[in-house]
């Protein structure tokens, strides 16, 4: 049996609706390019909307000062480092929503409250570095698989 390469369709990525909604490619070369170029300010507004947060609240979690946020809104896009933090927040938010089986409100509540598995820190307070984000994502993975320790 031969397969016509023109007919091949990559499997639809799980959760691609979330990534499309926020306006960030989920992974791969398109994601890398988007982060290097700086994501659009529209992505920030979409994340605020999806998470049900206030603009300044998300900026605080992402360690983006108010004056910088105003400059990015005016310029229409974020710098590389800020874009990476936006992606990390989106990644954690998506994982938490998945953990709570699509219940965005429960996911945001969990992210906003101290979690014993993170040393009683709030997950939203652990978004500034990739190591902290990795710890949050690791805990979410363990919770999904029933491994609490």
From TrEMBL:
Pfam families: Xre-like-HTH, Xre_MbcA_ParS_C. Residues 31-90 form the Antitoxin Xre-like helix-turn-helix domain. Residues 95-146 form the Antitoxin Xre/MbcA/ParS-like toxin-binding domain. NCBIfam families: TAS_TIGR02293 (TIGR02293). This is DUF2384 domain-containing protein. It comes from Alloalcanivorax profundimaris.
């Amino acid at each position: 049996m031969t397969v016509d390469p023109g007919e091949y369709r990559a499997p639809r990525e799980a959760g691609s609706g979330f990534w499309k909604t926020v306006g960030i490619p989920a992974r791969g070369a398109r994601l890398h390019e988007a982060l290097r170029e700086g994501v659009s300010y529209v992505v920030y507004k979409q994340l605020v909307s999806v998470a049900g947060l206030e603009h300044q609240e998300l900026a605080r979690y992402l360690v983006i000062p108010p004056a910088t946020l105003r400059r990015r809104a005016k310029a229409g896009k974020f710098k590389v480092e800020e874009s990476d933090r936006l992606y990390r927040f989106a990644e954690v938010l998506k994982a938490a929503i998945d953990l709570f089986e699509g219940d965005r409100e429960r996911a945001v509540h969990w992210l906003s409250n101290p979690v014993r598995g993170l040393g009683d820190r709030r997950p939203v307070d652990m978004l500034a570095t990739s190591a902290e984000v990795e710890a949050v994502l690791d805990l979410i993975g363990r919770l999904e698989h029933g491994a609490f320790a």
